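thread from #wetlab-drylab

HS: before we spend reagent money on co-crystallization trials with pantoate, can we at least see a predicted complex? here's what I'd submit
DV: go for it
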Amino acid sequence: MIIANDLETLQNSLLEIAKNGKKIALVPTMGALHTGHASLITQAKEMTDCVVVSIFVNPTQFGKNEDYSIYPRTFDDDVKLAQQSGAEIIYAPTVEDMYTNGFSTIISVGDMGKILCGKFRPSHFDGVATVVTKLLLRIMPHIAIFGMKDYQQLCVIERLVSDLDIPTEIVGAPIIREEDGLALSSRNRYLSPDERKIAPILYKTLQNTAHNLKSNNVSEILAKGIADLTEAGYKVEYLELCDSFTLAPLAEYEEGSRLLVAAWLGKTRLIDNMSVEENND
Ligand code: PAF
């Protein structure tokens, strides 16, 4: 296992791998790895010869009052989990390595980054798009795998890779859930024991909403979902039905549409999403 903390070490290791004609996968992460990340690494390993896991808590995707300073940093455990799951290289750059002195270019993905989570986290997707573009250009992987829990992030990255002709295949990997339905997230560890008991209601509400959508008035069903979450103790940012490719909001149910939700439980912001068909099939 190689651990590279700077670009030169990373690229020297990648040169060796490329010389041997191996296919490279990137699994970009912010660390605090859990079983969901392990499944991304395993899937990447099945599809390629060499998996690079990047671990970088990217300051530019956090708003001023967000959790950058307290975001969980568990590097030693992350290395163990990445290695056990099949990763060959960890790229864990410093902020200075990623954003050299005078850095000033921002990649912005237009309207898609301004709706849903982008409404509440205005510069978030610019930060994500910029760092992911840099990671893809530094590593030049054949594939890069992103979890579908961050569904809007996946759409933004697919858009930018297509728009900028970046020759990496973007792969979306299924959401991994706890037994009670809560989607795995590094931020779940912020939940108190009482909040943890309430948390799966987010998933149950998505299921109920998806189930009722096909045959009922969409805005009424979404309003009921928001009311159910609010009653359970959530502060809802949005619950919306969207086109699964463009993320445009839909006033009526259409085949291929997706439900997306973001809501606060105490001081923890949780997101989740679900294909309406998957739930009804
Ligand atoms: O999903 C994440 O962990 C981050 O947004 C990513 C893609 C690693 C970019 O910092």
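DV: The domain at 2-173 is CATH 3.40.50.620 (Rossmann fold).
HS: ok that's useful, forwarding to the group
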